[in-house]
Design goal:
EC number: 2.7.7.70
Radius of gyration: 16 Å
InterPro entries: Archaeal_FAD_synthase (IPR050385), Cyt_trans-like (IPR004821), RfaE_dom_II (IPR011914), Rossmann-like_a/b/a_fold (IPR014729)
Organism: Crenobacter cavernae
Largest sheet: 5 strands, parallel
Order of helices and strands: HEHEHHEHEHEH
Distance between the termini: 42 Å
Keywords: ATP-binding, Carbohydrate metabolism, Nucleotide-binding, Nucleotidyltransferase, Transferase
GO molecular function, one term: nucleotidyltransferase activity
Structural class: alpha/beta
Length: 167
């Protein structure tokens, strides 16, 4: 029986407790973003590629399943469990490292990473981005990247649940 290697992208998934060592191995400037990334869509991958272009290494932190549930997105969310969401993100060329956080905000993780660039999507104003004041105080940059595509996981799930697109 043939043996197949574990895909290399799996090595880009990093437990928070291993983050310090892994950060030291990444080229700077480090860009940081976070989110649920439940059902990856064009808006997500476009945003992540744009974020990655702002530095040398993009770190993506995903909310744990419990953290997603606390956000009130619906009782059945997340659709995809944390490990699957992290692996799919890690498979993207634009992503250097994927980790996770269980708090309601990524504030503690951002302070541990101390990114050179902090990024969120266009629905966040810079003054409302968690960690923006601290990042700016360190001399870093904070960006709110405008959406190029009108896509969202919530809208996709609403469409699926309504049976739209059935023939």
């Amino acid at each position: 029986m043939a043996r197949y290697p574990t895909p290399r992208f799996e090595d880009k998934v990093c437990a928070p407790e291993d983050l310090e060592q892994r950060l030291a191995e990444l080229p700077r400037p480090i860009v940081f973003t976070n989110g649920c990334f439940d059902i990856l869509h064009r808006g997500h991958v476009t945003y992540l590629a744009q974020a990655a272009a702002l530095g040398a290494s993009l770190i993506v932190a995903v909310n744990t399943d419990a953290s997603v549930k606390r956000q009130g997105k619906g009782i059945d969310r997340p659709i995809n469990p944390q490990d699957n969401r992290a692996a799919v993100l890690a498979a993207l060329e634009s992503v250097a490292l994927v980790t996770w956080f269980d708090d309601d905000t990524p504030a503690r993780l951002i302070e541990a990473v101390k990114p050179d660039v902090l990024v969120k999507g266009g629905d966040w104003t810079i003054d409302n981005i968690v960690g923006s004041a601290e990042t700016l105080a360190r001399g870093g940059q904070v960006h709110s990247i405008p959406f190029l595509f009108d896509t969202s996981t919530t809208a996709t799930l609403t469409k699926i649940r309504a049976g739209e697109g059935k023939e």
